[in-house]
Amino acid sequence: VSSRAFHPEDTIIKTKHTIIGGDHFVFMAGPDSIESPEHVLKMGQKVKSAGATILRGGAFKPRTSPYSFQGNGEVGLKAHRAAADTLGMDMVTEILDTRDVELVDFYTDIFQVGTRNMQNFALLKSLGQKRKPVILKRGMSATIDDLLNAAEYIAAGGNHQIMLMERGIRTYDNKYTRNTLDVSAIPVLQSMTHYPVIADASHAAGVAKFVSPLALAATAAGSQGLMTEIHDDPEHALVDGAQALTPAEFFQLAEKVRQIHQIV
Ligand code: PEP
Is 13-263 a CATH 3.20.20.70 domain? Predict the structure, then answer.
């Protein structure tokens, strides 16, 4: 059901504050992790003023090391929800575990499945039972077909509100960037499926100074939105400060993205 052959028109997803898909372009941005109620609200104000309508942030963090900060859990979800409501934005947050589906569902507007869980079929099946949008990030070593089959697991349960996200893949040279943004995946996926395709240049680059060029490239390639991490004090961010744009940098990027999106 994910194939364009089955459903030729673009899927359009409507949340309270955002229309996603087709010719619409969506900015989803915010901190990597929810650090405190004050911080997520402040970051939300910044990204909203730059044009973002979806506030991102992780309360359950899939860290490479079990000893790294794992996120603030429900305390983080609450703070995120409150900030989104105060600002009139939608909330997106990552879900790691089937046991947390009801908890995360209570707070969020959009579920995010991260790269490490793209083939967590139990999780995909439980999100297939929900009637709420899901962002499915491409596994860092997943092929296009793997990604589309993972999406199918959600769709098979009856939930067709799916966004696919290219966030960089592992290649033979990831010394200078964290991953390699597969720009080609954007038009290829759009030709094969009707779901909106969105890019996350932050996790692809892993280095703040490379985020904007990659985000612009993704926009030029037809991405229907961007997910971007920001922080007002990247050096002291609890997670992934190295790839965070400052609010001012994000503002500048958003301006350029709007210009490119008008052309493509
Ligand atoms: C994230 O967006 O916070 C994240 C962990 O992304 P990814 O799953 O792409 O690494």
Answer: yes
